[in-house]
Amino acid sequence: MSKHHSSTGTLASDQVLNITDLSIQFGGLKAVEGLSFDVKEKEIFGLIGPNGAGKTTAFNCITQFYHPDRGQVLFRTRSGEVMDLVGHPVHQIIRLGLVRTFQNVEVIKELSLIDNVLIGAHTDFKSTILEQALRLPRARREEKEMRRKAEEALEFMGIAHLKDAPAGGQPYGVLKKVEMARTLMCRPKLIILDEPAAGLNDSETAELAQTIRRVRDTYHCTILLVEHDMRLVMNICDRICAISFGQFLACGTPEEIQNNKLVQEAYLGEEEGE
Amino acid sequence: MKKVTVNGQGPSGNLALRVYRNAYFRYILFGVIISLLPMLAQSGVMPSSFLVNIGSVLIYAVVAMGLNLLLGYSGLISLGTAGFMGLGAYISGYLTEAMELPFLVAVLVAIVVAALLGTLVGFVSLRVAGIYLAIATLCVSEILRKTFEELDQFTNGFSGFTAGYPILFGISLKREATFVLLTVVLVLVMMLTHNLVNGQMGRALHAMRGSEVAAQAMGINLLKYRLIVFAIATAYAALGGALYMHFVKFSYPSTWIMMFSLNILAVVVIGGLRSIYGTVIGALIVFAVPDLVLKRIPVIGKIDGIAYIFTGVLIILVIMFYPNGVVGLRQDLKRLMSKLFGKKKEGAHHV
Fold first, then answer.
1. How far A88 CA sits from the closest chain B CA (Å)?
2. Which of A43, B20, B43, B233 has the fewest CB atoms within 10 Å, i.e. is most exposed?
3. Quick check: B188 contacting A, CB < 8 Å?
4. Do B196 and A132 count as a contact with CB atoms less than 8 A apart?
């Protein structure tokens, strides 16, 4: 926690995330250039764009996997403090209440589902390694408490009956739920979902839409969705930001985005050009 | 399944069964059974020379437990085991023999010094990975071995360093008592490892092995856990080395060569990655079977380096058929048993 930046910027009271002039460049390629948008509290917000638009790069800049060359990522943390995330070590981001999932579900095959979910509570453990090695009372109490929380999260996702099954060999849909349950362990303020609908069929996608809403309503958090599946995005997002070639196109409600000329061109541009 | 406690509030259930299911109880039971071996030796059922072999196996199991934490849980490789074990042996030997410090103090110093050195290697592991980490750790080990050769005022160089059986609280232990001490240490190490791998740290190591990116996103500080796991692994190796010094009672630089590190690696791979009992079984297979069994077989026993051939062939077989080590056999045996004895039930299901 040594590199905490002072809370420099300001955030409107209803905002949880505000990105200003975010830019990153790899070699000569400007992957994201001058991107700005904001996400409001309890919102389901979509970040869309054609392939190679820089969605994932933008997302990695927010979670500090990449450190952007320029710009600000203001975030209202779990404790209500406003902070510029830029420059924070990546493993400290989750402590602030910002958690993500992965496009190609990152679960540990050798661990049971509940142990996988418990990984999400990693930063909430207070007992030291020595206390854990000797199973001292605090470590035992904590483990028990977290295990109960993890069971609740699995219950919420409807897979509590599988809690002791190893993650290896579980169907993809179950693993996606495990990953979602894992994000719920850290008392999230903002959950970023990286293409949650990838690899799901229609009925699973419909269920996912329900789940995302339920997560937002039950856990009182905000959801930022980076997604390809237009039906999902148009169905559940309150607002959407569209980008193309690393640059901001438009931001608005699903209807506004669907009717936006620039967005239509970005997605269908090639056909019109012919 | 993992966490059945003795005083769990299950309304019914056989108490004896619940006690048996308790992991700690089973470690202790395992230790008690092993510590009965000296009696077998004394009563003449087992040749007493076996005691030295089995005792060494217990020591190697402690050392391999450390490598299993690295390789099995964290996915980090180390070929430096021999050097760290030798370091533990020489430090503990020198402190007890030349400086006449108590055994426990000597062992503790050996562990702390090695763990500090291990932490340094942990730093390196953040920069280099895979085969390069293997080479880096091998270099550390070779530097240590060369140091053992050259620093002959401490290590007695090529002639080897000799130490006596441990003296615990003023009591000089004999071979049998030392054997029991080894068992106690192994059981403690097994319990400690059990606690570590089944808690927050174990999950962090798993996550780190699975994907560094995902682990970091979950708030796991890679540097911290790499340093810790290297420190623990080298501490185990040094502990094993110190016990070796006072059980085998001599140490030559030529013991702590790469071949030894590879043997410890074989223990982990053959016994079972991420398995505590597997590590012990692996140590038994790699270090005891060649001496106790193979060398007694008429023609085969005469082949030079039969132990290496045996280990090599076994590694290939295990990787091909039981990638998670011979502990995987247990599942197969269970399945076979239920096939043989539970046929009726299964048949009913299929009909």
1. 12
2. B43
3. no
4. yes
Asked if A1 and A79 sit in the same domain, the reply is: yes
Task: With CB atoms and an 8 Å threshold, state whether B200 touches A100.
Answer: no
> Between A122, A129, A135, which is nearest B218 by CB?
A122
Nearest-angstrom CA–CA distance, A182 and A86: 24
Lowest mean pLDDT among A61-70, A84-93, B9-18: B9-18
Mean pLDDT of B276-288: 95
Is the residue at A102 inside a domain?
no
- Phi and psi, residue B99, nearest 5°: -100, -5
Query: Parallel, antiparallel, or unpaired for β A44-48 and A222-226?
Result: parallel
Name the more confident of B53 and B45.
B53
Confidence of residue A273 (pLDDT cuts 50, 70, 90): very low
Residue B72 neighbours by CB under 8 Å, 6+ apart: B268, B272, B273, B274, B275
Within B156-221, residue ranges assigned H as helices are: 175-197, 200-210, 212-217
DSSP assignment of A225-247? EE-S-HHHHHHH-SEEEEEETTE
Q: Does A129 reach chain B within 8 Å, measured CB to CB? A: yes
Domain hosting A118: range is: 108-186
B161-197 confidence digits (pLDDT tens): 999 999 888 888 888 999 999 999 999 999 999 999 9
The single-letter DSSP state of residue A105 is -
Tell me, yes or no, if A165 comes closer than 8 A to chain B by beta carbon. Answer: no
For chain A, what is the domain count? 2
> Within its chain, how far is the Cα of B223 from the centroid?
24
Last residue of a domain, one of A135, A168, A186: A186
Asked whether residue A103 is domain-assigned, the answer is no
Whether A241 and A264 map to the same domain: the answer is yes
Chain A partners of B204 at a C-beta cutoff of 8 Å? 119, 122
DSSP state letter for A6: P
For B189, the closest chain A residue by CA position comes to A133
Chain A residues with beta carbon closer than 8 angstroms to that of B27? none
Contact (CB<8Å) B216/A90:
yes
Question: Which pLDDT belongs to residue A265?
Answer: 86
End-to-end CA distance of chain A: 55
- Do A115 and A237 lie in one domain? The reply is no
Length of chain B: 351
pLDDT at B13: 64
User: Rounded to an integer, what distance in angstroms lies between the CA atom of residue B161 and that of residue B154?
Assistant: 9
Report percent pLDDT > 90 for chain B.
Answer: 65
